[in-house]
Batch of 4 targets.
Target 1
Amino acid sequence: MGMVDMDTIFASIIGASSALLGAALTANIQLRTQRNSHLFQHESDDLKRQNEKLEREISLALERLTTAHLLLSAIGREFSQAKILINWKAEMTDGEYDQKYLAICQDMDELRAIAGLYETALSDDVETLHRCMNRFWGEFQNVLRLSALGQNVNHETSCYNATHVAATEIQERTRTLKERLTKQAEKYRNLA
């Protein structure tokens, strides 16, 4: 009987140990599962935040490109062949034209900021466009002064001719820059 009792006790100890070991293994597996689930949720949340951040950055970039495109359209229109005739026929004074020029310079300043801070690949071309605007302004100032003095101004007058050359260059540069903006916008949209 002493042996049977020992076998029973031994079996009970083994059974209890097995139960404890099974419970420990189950607890360990549950802990690992919870930890893996928590890590997966954390990584999923991080990925979601990164995607949201990327979407916001793309949206802001597309807004800047839209603004730059609109600014280029305004600049191109203000320094066009048609605008030369409109301003000249209006018998605008050089002082009045200075005010118009300063207003469009604000658009150029905004365009330069976008190119200089965000779309740096466009910066050199935007600066060249700015120099063309200045050249146009100076030459057109001379056209207005000569006209105000009653002198005959036509295509053979150097300042009038230079104004048209500058206008043509501005039109070409704004067109090219807008094409580049369109391509850049397409790249941003493909990232989304």
Target 2
Amino acid sequence: MEPMIADMVERFERGSISRRDLIRSLSMLLAARTVSAEEPAADTSLTATGIDHVSVLVSDVERSRAFYQNLFALSTLSEDKEHGIVRLGRKRVIVSIRKELPYGTVDHFGVGVENFSRDRVTQALKQRGLTAQENWQYGYYLKDPDGVNVQLVPGRESP
């Protein structure tokens, strides 16, 4: 967790994320750690299998593609030319990039859910007073308490 925090602080100091985004990200990390350390999952919980992917808004798709490909040895797995999205990974998508303001922003992150089915997830959310939404940008998603888009996807086994 320390490397993730150090990276967020460094991005804040460079001015690539706002103070609000820094605090939101740190709060999410703390909340996730607190829940996992203190509360066992209830029968109706959605068991996360991990972060499925991260979607980043960029100013230059080709420059960002080259950065992620060169640094992490990722390949272009798919492109959505209509929406200007490039999906990078090795065996599966890890980073999705799209040219859109505000640049340098994590647009959403996808959480893999164990035993995913829309009916089951919808029911689990409903029990908590939450409702998933759907659109082309985020797929099947909900917003966290601060408005961050959290996409829900079928969980995948580790590569």
Target 3
Amino acid sequence: MSSQISRRSRVKPFVKVINYSHLLPTRYSLDVDLPNVDVQKDAAGRRKAKGQVKKVFQERYNSGKNKWFFSKLRF
């Protein structure tokens, strides 16, 4: 049973290149210190960046802070 819970509580990050002019500011903010992630065009660079981001977000999720950030969106 605990393996199911640990599998469901994993953070699955993704890295996406976006155009900053298409971002909309919101009233929500998350105070997470992300490492300087330099996403390159090669697959190895993206894989390394995803690993770094996953580590930071998984620690935040396990600590229980900002539960609203890790919950599903309801529309």
Target 4
Amino acid sequence: MTTAIRPTAASWAIDPTHTDIAFAVRHMGLSTVRGRFDVVAGTIRTDDSGVPSEIRVELDTDSIVTGTADRDGHLRSADFFDAERHPKIVFESSSVRPKGGDRYEIVGDLEMHGVRNEVVLDAEIGEPIRDPFGLIRRAASGSTKINRKDWGLTWNQVLEAGALLVAEEVRITLDVQATQQD
């Protein structure tokens, strides 16, 4: 049984076992390839009304999983994430704007492949609950779209019909669970 909790100022740690950071990109203009990062960590700070005020998320680029070992290896290589030189993808929020109800616009910097650019996430943030083990938890889901070339991820091939092997637009989705730390 879960119990609703009144939101307050708090520090939260992202629970990596209940968090999914995923991406989707068109392949050959025909289908969509999906993947995720298995190693995620982060912290969230909420203000007195329980609204997130600071968010920091780190992903290990070496933990990318698409379901195909050869593709995962290529994505870790210098052609894409260059995991050896750039082991982390980091998001740090700069503002959180209410959009009504439980919807928020989260603006922040996404650092990937040694390049830092601003992104805007559309997010839905749930109310805190006490889980059956006594922990106070919150969950959020969100999405954004980026152009991978803006982060220097430019490897590609042009196919015979003129389509790109890998699309430039990448859709990112996240489902995050966090536990209160104080």
